[in-house]
């Protein structure tokens, strides 16, 4: 079993997020019958929502609470809840199809008395994924909850939850975990595992986790096999935090706009097993230092370049979590930064001649000896565009086309193939984003044209969810992985 599961907080004192811990502690000060019937836990992934939901469930159903009223963590019900097998504590994943069915049943079953315990508790994860119908059913139940029922809803996306539901819940907010909270979590494990670690090494692990308890614990576990005291160097080599030289070479190449060299550095880092996330943070930190230096020395040009690069890298960082290929966001950032510079020199990029509207047919015609020469010109539906294209051709420079570049499509992805392998696509998405995979189950591939895969969703909120740029990138990444072709993904709203 992994550290994260072994050391998942089981009792109140072990909730590492101080704000959340205090909120839950406040619940102990009142008799249970006076506590709210519904809780909404809001925060990013890996911040401890499920853990806290279970602690609240224990708080209601523990047989031997402490003097302060906190759950003991060791009685039968506490253990069953920790293992997710308490008969009166139902855990529902709203992102799955069964989740929706469970909500429909919920209204009928919630009225029944608990089987063993005093309280019947529903934990609904990813609650924002519920359909409008399911939300309505839930709302009815929340409006008049049976006295024995408690609802604990958890979400990463609170804005998708109807205000009518939110207003009936006690909201508990989990921000990104703060460094002291993560340190609190790691120190607990370090003590129990009897590990020896330098303070600097511990803060390096905390820094590398980007506010996620789960990542921090995973990184600590990776180092736990080291014998003797854990130093900064041990952390660096075990977590694949590269030496400064690799980072500095990379930064020098990218700042010189040497796209190829910089991409080569990224590939080398991957080969050497360097953790891209940690590498990226290291780069950002270095850029931050340089930026401060530039500002102090009033180096305006240098400041602008660094700011642009920091923006590119920050975007890459925010996409790391959902990227199917770990190094891809960094590679895109390299290309984006280097090409921004090129665009400033000349806004005109090279687009293949054949895709410019109006150019193709006249040139085809002339190559066929002029017999059909006048025909395409007369039939041209859009003379303005054609004349624009001709004048551009005269300049021998081409304007970027707003259309996708169709010459790059390989034709490896077809609608038929997608229909046949849709389930594989969904399965492949699961590890990257469970809720997206859930939504994809109720969609179908509509068409594949000019390197654009159009997906048909049947609910507005499904379409909105899938249309998010990051989500479309993840889907495109999976399609690339499965079929070997780079495509763009669009999502439209269809009728059933
Ligand atoms: Zn207990």
Bound compounds, each kind once, are: zinc ion
CATH C-level class of the largest domain is Alpha Beta
**Main sheet strand line-up:** 2-3-4-1-5
Helix proportion range: 40-55%
* Overall SS class: alpha/beta
Number of strands: 8
CATH H-tier superfamily of the largest domain: P-loop containing nucleotide triphosphate hydrolases
Just name the CATH architecture of the largest domain.
3-Layer(aba) Sandwich
| CATH fold type of the largest domain | Rossmann fold
Distance between the termini: 45 Å
Low-confidence stretches: 343-407
- The gyration radius over C-alpha positions equals 28 Å
What's the overall geometry?
globular
Walk me through this protein's architecture:
Helices cover 53% and strands 9% of the residues. The strands form 2 sheets. Strands 2-3-4-1-5 form a 5-stranded parallel sheet, with helices on both faces. It has a 3-stranded mixed sheet with strand order 6-7-8. Residues 343-407 have low confidence and may be disordered. The chain folds into 5 domains: 3-173, P-loop containing nucleotide triphosphate hydrolases (Rossmann fold, 3-Layer(aba) Sandwich); 179-238, Helicase, Ruva Protein, domain 3, CATH 1.10.8; 244-345, Zinc Finger, Delta Prime, domain 3 (Up-down Bundle); 353-399, no CATH class; 408-493, DnaA, N-terminal domain (GMP Synthetase, Chain A, domain 3), CATH 3.30.300. The longest helix is centred in the middle third of the chain and has 21 residues, at 276-296. The chain has helices at 3-6, 18-27, 49-61, 76-82, 97-109, 132-143, 163-166, 179-193, 199-207, 213-223, 232-238, 244-255, 259-271, 276-296, 300-319, 328-345, 360-367, 374-379, 383-395, 415-429, 434-440, 460-467, 469-483, and strands at residues 38-42, 89-93, 120-125, 149-155, 170-173, 443-449, 452-457, 488-493. It is α/β, with parallel strands linked by helices and 496 residues long. Bound molecules: zinc ion.
């Amino acid at each position: 079993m992994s550290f994260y599961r072994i050391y998942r907080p089981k009792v109140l004192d072990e909730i590492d997020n101080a704000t959340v811990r205090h909120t839950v502690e406040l619940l102990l000060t009142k008799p249970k019958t006076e506590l709210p019937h519904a809780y909404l836990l809001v925060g990013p992934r890996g911040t401890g929502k499920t853990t806290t939901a279970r602690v609240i469930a224990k708080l209601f159903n523990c047989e031997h609470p402490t003097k302060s009223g906190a759950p003991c963590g060791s009685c039968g019900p506490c253990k069953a809840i920790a293992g997710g097998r308490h008969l009166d504590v139902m855990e529902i994943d709203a992102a799955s199809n069964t989740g929706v069915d469970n909500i429909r049943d919920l209204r009928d079953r919630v009225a029944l008395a608990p089987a063993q315990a005093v309280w019947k508790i529903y934990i609904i994860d990813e609650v924002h994924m519920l359909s409008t119908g399911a939300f309505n059913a839930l709302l009815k139940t929340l409006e008049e909850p049976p006295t024995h029922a408690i609802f604990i809803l958890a979400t990463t996306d609170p804005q998708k939850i109807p205000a009518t539901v939110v207003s009936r819940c006690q909201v508990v907010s989990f921000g990104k975990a703060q460094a002291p909270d993560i340190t609190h979590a790691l120190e607990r494990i370090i003590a129990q595992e009897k590990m020896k670690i330098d303070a600097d090494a511990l803060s390096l692990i905390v820094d590398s986790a980007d506010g996620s308890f789960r990542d921090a614990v995973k990184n600590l576990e990776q180092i736990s096999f080291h014998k003797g005291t854990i130093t900064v160097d041990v952390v660096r080599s075990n977590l694949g935090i590269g030496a400064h030289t690799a980072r500095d070479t990379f930064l020098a190449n990218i700042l010189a706009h040497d796209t190829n060299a910089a991409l080569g550095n990224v590939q080398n880092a991957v080969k050497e097993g360097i953790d891209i996330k940690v590498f990226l943070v290291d780069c950002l930190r270095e850029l931050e230092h340089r930026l401060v230096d530039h500002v102090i020395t009033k180096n305006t040009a240098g400041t602008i370049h660094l700011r642009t690069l920091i923006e590119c890298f920050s975007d890459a960082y925010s996409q790391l979590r959902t990227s199917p290929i770990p190094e891809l966001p960094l590679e895109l950032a390299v290309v984006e930064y280097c090409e921004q510079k090129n665009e400033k020199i000349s806004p005109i990029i090279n687009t293949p001649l054949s895709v410019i509207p109006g150019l193709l047919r006249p040139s085809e015609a002339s190559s066929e000896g002029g017999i059909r020469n006048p025909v395409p010109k007369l039939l041209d539906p859009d003379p303005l565009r054609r004349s624009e294209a001709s004048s551009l051709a005269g300049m021998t420079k081409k304007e970027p086309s707003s259309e996708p570049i169709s010459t790059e499509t390989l034709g490896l992805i077809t609608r038929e193939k997608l229909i046949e392998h849709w389930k594989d696509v969904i399965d492949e998405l699961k590890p990257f984003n469970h809720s997206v995979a859930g939504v994809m189950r109720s969609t179908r591939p509509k068409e594949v044209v000019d390197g654009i895969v159009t997906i048909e969703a049947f609910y507005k909120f499904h379409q909105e969810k899938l249309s998010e740029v990051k989500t479309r990138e993840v889907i495109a990444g999976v399609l690339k992985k499965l079929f070997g072709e780079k495509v763009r993904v669009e999502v439209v709203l269809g009728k059933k």
